[in-house]
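Exercise (ungraded).
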Amino acid sequence: MLATMNTCTITKLARAFGLSRSTLLYYDRIGLLPPSGRTAAGYRCYTQRDRQRLERICHFRQAGLTLADIRTLLSSSGKPNAKLLERRFRELGGQLLELRSQQRLLASMLKGVAAGKCPPAVDRVMWVKMLRAAGMDDRAMGRWHTEFERRAPDAHQEFLVSLGIPESEIQRIRKSSAEGAW
Amino acid sequence: MLATMNTCTITKLARAFGLSRSTLLYYDRIGLLPPSGRTAAGYRCYTQRDRQRLERICHFRQAGLTLADIRTLLSSSGKPNAKLLERRFRELGGQLLELRSQQRLLASMLKGVAAGKCPPAVDRVMWVKMLRAAGMDDRAMGRWHTEFERRAPDAHQEFLVSLGIPESEIQRIRKSSAEGAW
DNA sequence: ATTGACCTGTCTATTACTTCACAGTTTAGG
DNA sequence: CCTAAACTGTGAAGTAATAGACAGGTCAAT
């Protein structure tokens, strides 16, 4: 008899929050989320309070804070400590820029592959498929062209040509991209 | 006498590529970038070829490939292996989405802080400052509003109100955001 | 009671580094 | 020539956030 109606075991808690058992074990080990009790058999017993704490933890994790930061936030509870948030926000901005540059870089690499010796049939259709697979919708794809046009117009032109897109459509795309009118 | 004009020491190489000495030591240890030679004293001697290899490594790292993948790419040189790139591209798309959601979340948290008890004077000016500090330019800020409006119109409204922006301007901003006309 | 599925705890491995400690080497200045 | 700073090497240990292996515990159905 474990669940006294209000407690739950580690795997159940993990599933409820979309985490892995290992993660909760880890959180226990570092003292971030020790279960309120144990059963006779030594099983961890998580209470409602534990669940609430975990919810806050997940919330902060979602926002990308480190466990150390979260510990600080939870212990010095009350004070929102906007400094931490602001710092993280700044970091996020950098990360976004970095990711976008990665994407551009990868794009050019794939372009190189497509244009180079080993042409794995990366034509327009294939590209659109890949971009969709990467989670892009039409709007995002428009933004992608806009970014490409803004940062590297020449490469953008080259890229479109490499996809075998007719000149007339290239003009249209680049014009739209330049205006950001998506 | 170390530098025979074409070789350089570990720290110099590290500085040239914006890496730490430890990183290069690590790359040597795992056999990813062993220096071409050593001085009599045993100091690592990096040649031009080593630098080129490191440049490729950095290039791939920039794109987010793991060192294992990079090793594969560099050893099976020639074959572009578009599979790896494509896979990474997919991952990137996911990461970008994730980051954007983080940003939104953080935004709402900061909003809460601003609206809540501990008001660290997060008004409009402060926000713009923060967003700029996060690397946003006007265009990016427009996109940010657009995203906000698209995904959470109510929260967007609330947010703008919380910044003390007059109703008339809020209308204007939200209308523009909805159209994505930035 | 027993089987089999699923659960538990602990311990170890992973990635890409970083930090540390300690001893030898090079270099610039006096 | 000497000394102090700055560099070098090795090796060990630490980091985040899990993932996986493993032996054993628990539970529902038979």
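Further reading is listed at the end of the chapter. For now, observe: The first strand of chain B starts at residue 37 and ends at 38. Confidence is low (pLDDT under 50) at residues 117-121 of chain B.
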